[in-house]
Structures are given as C-alpha cells and as structure tokens.
Design a protein that fits this description.
CATH class: Alpha Beta
Radius of gyration: 21 Å
EC number: 7.1.1.-
Organism: Usitatibacter palustris
Main location: membrane
Strand content: 5-15%
Number of domains: 1
Family: Belongs to the complex I 20 kDa subunit family.
Shape: globular
Structural class: alpha/beta
Order of helices and strands: HEHEHEHEH
Oligomer: single chain
GO molecular function: 4 iron, 4 sulfur cluster binding; iron ion binding; NADH dehydrogenase (quinone) (non-electrogenic) activity; NADH dehydrogenase (ubiquinone) activity; quinone binding
Bound molecules: iron/sulfur cluster
C-alpha cells in the first residue's frame, strides 16, 4: 500500500486567509501581465504610413515578441485600433463606427503625424487629429514613424496596460 503523504490544506479561496490576501494583491499584476502580451491590432490604414506599418509587421522587427503580431480584420476581435495615415472628415464617421464596434477594454494608437494632428494637410478636407472623434491612448510621431518608434510606442502602451486596473477583477475574484 502506498504511503500517504500528509497534505496541508491551504484555503486560498477563503477571504481573510493570508494566502488569499497574497493572491488578491497580485491578481491585478497577473491579469495585467497576461493582457499586455495579448494585443490584437486592427489596422485602419488610409495613406502612405502604411509602408512603415508593413515594415513594422515584417520579420526583422518581430512584433511577435510583444504579442502584437496578428492583425485582426474585424473590429469585434481587436483591442488595439491602429490608425495609420491621414483621416479625412468624410472618413471620420467610418473610423468612429469601427471604434464603437470594438469591445472594452480597447486602446487606440495614432500612427504618424497625420493621425496625430493632420500632419501637413492643414486644409478643409483633413481631420486635424483623430482625437477630435475618438480617444487616443498613444501618439506615434513621424512622417512616417520609424519602426523602432512604433515598437517603442507598443512597449509604452504595454506598460500602461500592465499597470491598469482591469474591470474583470472584482473584490471577490
Ligand atoms: S504622416 Fe506622412 S507618411 Fe504618414 S500618412 Fe501622413 S504624410 Fe503619409
């Protein structure tokens, strides 16, 4: 007959127990860590910044390292809206509709000078920055931005996601 080993019951699921308290203080960190490596970008690409977006997505820059390699082509499956290029007033309602179709939590990146401020298209047709219609979490400077700048922005966004409070975490979870 196999020797039975004594087991130490750890009721980590019971509020008030020290193991439960320990897990409770770390759960935000754990979810933040998992979420920051699970970005699913939706590229809303309108103009020449697309060339650098393609460069960022290519093998030498390996965005797989950041868990952000797989673009989704449905906003419902994405949590990172990357607005790449010039947005005109005519396109603005479409961008807003795409944003509204994404589930929470979601983040927005303004990729390049045009998405950030309209760039040098200061005219009646171009939107002077996408933050006029949707909230922006991170701005990437450049016309177009270098891939390294985009990677830096992804890392900054990851930092923020890791430190955010995640609404799925409640007092009892
Ligand atoms: S920022 Fe420069 S490269 Fe990017 S869409 Fe505008 S003009 Fe084109």
């Amino acid at each position: 007959m196999a020797a039975s080993h004594p087991t130490i019951p750890i009721h980590a699921d019971k509020p008030g127990h020290s193991a439960f308290e320990f897990l409770s203080t770390r759960k935000d960190e754990l979810v933040g860590w998992a979420r920051k490596f699970s970005l699913f970008p939706y590229p809303f690409v309108t103009a020449c910044c697309a060339m650098e977006f393609m460069a960022v997505s290519s093998t030498p820059y390996d965005t797989d390292r950041f868990g952000a390699a797989l673009p989704r082509f449905s906003p419902r499956q994405s949590d990172l809206l990357m607005v790449v290029g010039t947005v005109t007033h005519k396109q603005a309602p479409i961008l807003l509709k795409v944003y509204e179709q994404m589930c929470e939590p979601k983040w927005v990146m303004a990729f390049g000078a045009c998405a950030t401020s309209g760039g040098f298209y200061q005219n009646y047709a171009a939107l002077p920055g996408i933050d006029r219609i949707i909230p922006v979490d991170i701005y990437v400077p450049g016309c177009p931005p270098r891939p390294e700048t985009v990677i830096d922005a992804i890392m900054k966004l990851q930092e923020r996601i890791a430190n955010d409070h995640h609404p799925i975490l409640t007092k009892d979870f």
